Amino acid sequence: MIHDAQLDYYGKRLATCSSDRTIKVFDVVDGEAQRQSGGQTLKGHNGPVWQVAWAHPKFGHILASCSYDGRVLIWKEQPSTQASQSASWSRIKEHTLHTASVNSVSWAPHELGAIVACASSDGKLSVLTFKADSTWSADIFNGHAIGCNAVSWAPAVLPGSLITPAPSNTSANNTNTSNPQQPPPPATPQGVKRFASAGCDNLVKIWGFREDTQAWIEEETLEGHTDWVRDVAWAPNIGLPRSYIATASQDKTVLIWTKDSPQGSWTKTALDPSPASTATPGAAGTTIPTPGRFSDVVWRVSWSLAGNILAVSCGDGKVTLWKENLRGTWECVSEMLQ
């Protein structure tokens, strides 16, 4: 069974991972994935591989993978020394600090450097950072008590930076409204290191890195789901004030979390698939979705590159596309049945 498939930055390579413990890399030619000279099967995990993630091409052809075996492997494509031979992939890092299945890996925005966040069933989150001296450092900390399912990085661009200058770290307004005991992490010249995590405790947590203490802190906790949160996706942002986070849950709901300004609080809205249903009340063999709930568990959510369209993957085999209209209401604009 294939668990994940990811295109690289340019859409020229497709990486897949599956229950057979392998990762396969395909060349994409004219919209079709082909195992040509550049394609390879990567072996190294001792259990099903749950997820793969491409690093930004500025760091080279680098791929991260996570597995049930509790490890995260970083792979790099090494160019061939001979014209007659194809390039080969090799492991450049093995991350073994977790004690249970690692369920998700996500690369930070390239402006922040080569950094990858990991979520594990042991309840911990970890962050791997490639340093200037060509070594890796690792931070690991408690995330969700029962287990962590997914991670997603915030955009490197500060919210609102397109229309207002970023405040200085000494500003009197530099406070954390959700947790007064923890001031917000100061911004680096490249942006703020911040990501969201989804857990088996039904919670979504937002984490920020403090450059002064060199530590990750929990900034906010988002409560709204009544069962495991399966996925989280932070929408891309070009510097506008509003931020969006989408979360998918075992409770058959998708919540859109919105923050109108960096100093504001998060508000939640549930996607409602019921108006899009064509089922007729009482018709044999048809069901009407409960308002605010999908017909099955929602496994994945993913934003478009522009951050204005959300793809939702449900256990019933459907992928739906959602967009916010001018009234601020989220509506289904397309539906695909697998």
Task: Give keywords.
single chain, 338 residues, mainly beta, Methylamine Dehydrogenase, Chain H, 5-stranded antiparallel sheet, 4-stranded antiparallel sheet, 25 strands, globular, WD40 repeat-like protein, WD40_rpt, endoplasmic reticulum, membrane, WD repeat
Topology record:
Blueprint lengths: L1 E6 L5 E6 L3 E8 L2 E3 L5 E4 L5 E6 L7 E6 L4 E7 L9 E8 L6 E6 L7 E6 L3 E7 L5 E7 L5 E6 L40 E6 L3 E8 L4 E9 L5 E6 L8 E7 L4 E6 L7 E4 L27 E6 L5 E6 L3 E7 L5 E8 L1
Antiparallel strand pairs: 1-2, 2-3, 3-4, 3-5, 6-7, 7-8, 8-9, 10-11, 11-12, 12-13, 14-15, 15-16, 16-17, 18-19, 19-20, 20-21, 22-23, 23-24, 24-25
Protein name: WD40 repeat-like protein
InterPro entries: Sec13/Seh1_fam, WD40/YVTN_repeat-like_dom_sf, WD40_repeat_dom_sf, WD40_rpt
Pfam family, one: WD40
Query: What oligomeric state is this?
Result: single chain
Distance between the termini: 15 Å
Instruction: State the fourth-level CATH superfamily of the domain at 160-337.
Output: YVTN repeat-like/Quinoprotein amine dehydrogenase
Helix content: under 10%
* Secondary-structure element order, N to C: EEEEEEEEEEEEEEEEEEEEEEEEE
Protein name: WD40 repeat-like protein
WD repeats: 42-85, 222-257
GO cellular component, one term: COPII vesicle coat
Keywords: Cytoplasmic vesicle, Endoplasmic reticulum, ER-Golgi transport, Membrane, mRNA transport, Nuclear pore complex, Nucleus, Protein transport, Repeat, Translocation, Transport, WD repeat
